[in-house]
């Protein structure tokens, strides 16, 4: 099990390295002032990069570093690597969507770049269409074909139904479809990895609160918990009502202890939730929706928001074993969001949000 340390070296150099058009750009890497890379469930990583736009020349003068650059351009490819400079890990791969110049009296000019990963094309495509008599996995494959992505799929082979995309972007439609089955999508290079949360098997990292964390807040909250979730619909072909209920966790994710639904029932009695806003016509789909909604609530029972030393391996889908938080909160969590940050004052840090369905200790 890897620990939470980003490097075993006595001196850890974590300045980001950059690649434009497939080529490493040492000059650009040396001019990085600030970097923020956001990723979360649902895909579409976003990058913000600020570079000093003032550089020395060989004749002893200075010039705008990127004024005539053919690589730093709108729509151009960009890759960012983080972690130890001698052993960098890819943090981001995508295309530049915005370029901004920043001028302030008494300071050198700066260049701000914004970029998004390969799901950018899904965000820009808005369509209306119907996928008739298809499994969710077939719909995902069709979307990948439209977007030039290679699907890497797990499960989602049922139910067979008709799925309507009505004046939605491909990304919004994909997220809505996958949410019905408690599944997630992430881009890796030009591959779109799609699988139910139960099948996500990424790395496991162990963190000690005293040595690896700069700060953390962990909260167990009953406010959004439910003892059951009920989904109702109507099957027009048979003229019968459809009803499904979930009252036990089918995919809680990592961790162990008491779940939120049980603690809610002990404290306040049965508190079911009815989902009446969903259009459902099949029993199988209704049951999947009820279980997915119950599991999502359950997993958000305990949420940890923290900051650790910069670690490029701390990504969405990682299982995070945290110790040193006390018996109540020491557990294994699932990372749902990360934010990789760098600046010349604070260095490299990684902010994260992680979830666990269980509370330990005497609870």
From TrEMBL:
This is Phage late control D family protein. It comes from the Bacteria.
